Amino acid sequence: MTTVLTIVVVLVAVALFLDLALHRALRAPRLPGTTEPADVGVHAIAVRLLTANDRRLFAWYCPPPAADRRRPAPALAAVHGWGGTADGLLPLARVLQAEGYGVLLIDTRCHGRSEDDTFASLPRFAEDLSHGVDWLRARPEIDAGRIAVMGHSVGAGAALLTGSRRRDLVGVVSLAAFAHPEEVMRAFVRTWGVPYRPIGWAINRYVERVIGHRFRDIAPLSTVARQHAPVLLLHGGRDRVVPVRDMERLRDAARAAGCAVQAVTVPGVDHEGVDPETGTSVIDRGADHLRAFLAGVAPVRAMTAAPDDLAAPAAARAGRAGPVIDEPGRAPVRA
């Protein structure tokens, strides 16, 4: 009996050790934000908003240049990739704010200046992005009927997952999305020098259990075929992390499902969205495609709500309490 008990204790200890080790190995690196909006010529306000599990997210809100509740503007909510921050998307805000859009750049949980949670995952990126959409919908200067979402890498997968769940979006923009998390995890485990079967396969099943979702259900290859709005796929031609072939597979899956999709390869750009030789970003080189796409799904000049409705409190129009905003020098207040 003592021997059996000892074996059980050892197995439990090993399981707990492996659980802790995997959590540490799969944890996203938390990098501090190093760029301020003014550094790239963007007018932005630092805000905090609530997400799932009562966690608070940091975000840069870049209001439309001609904010007017009687003529609300379209907007875009965006999230970074794994280990990234909202600061990295500020060049995007510069381009879109100049065109008349409002932009919300979100630090997802466990990233940047947002609060921690038990873990980060693609579905949690999507939860945070969706809360960002709700935040924008409650703003009086934003047209709730003209909001799009965007993401980079894992964030792109989150944008596609959000687009498959919500019917109130007008467009989804994906930067360097991978096709399937099973393939990404298989490549990741390979860097540890362990065989995919049985060890890598078991790790993937463990990750599925932790995040509460099967990879096949949240895979961009699946969600891109369940979109309710047009999709723009942008991908760097020199991406060595996620091959361009992944974008082509996503495009083909969307078309096969009858979803509206555009796919653009941006020459010379790597996975981080930069040309390593010139420093040119995917935002700069893909700006015309992005502008044209958003102009088609969320034109700046259109007006879709009556002035009397827009004059009503934003929270009342949204049918819920207003979002929490942190303003410089003030305690958090309700919008």
What does this structure look like?
There is one protein chain. Strands 1-2-4-3-5-6-7-8 form an eight-stranded mixed beta sheet, sandwiched between helices. The protein has helices at 2-25, 90-99, 122-137, 154-165, 181-190, 196-211, 215-218, 220-223, 244-256, 282-285, 287-297, 307-311, 314-318, and strands spanning 45-50, 56-62, 73-79, 102-106, 142-152, 171-175, 231-236, 261-266, 324-325, 333-334. The protein folds into two domains: 44-179 and 219-334, Alpha/Beta hydrolase fold, catalytic domain (Rossmann fold, 3-Layer(aba) Sandwich), CATH 3.40.50.1820; 181-216, no CATH class. It is globular. It is α/β, with parallel strands linked by helices and 335 residues long. Helix 3 (122-137) packs across helix 4 and helix 5 (181-190) crosses helix 6.
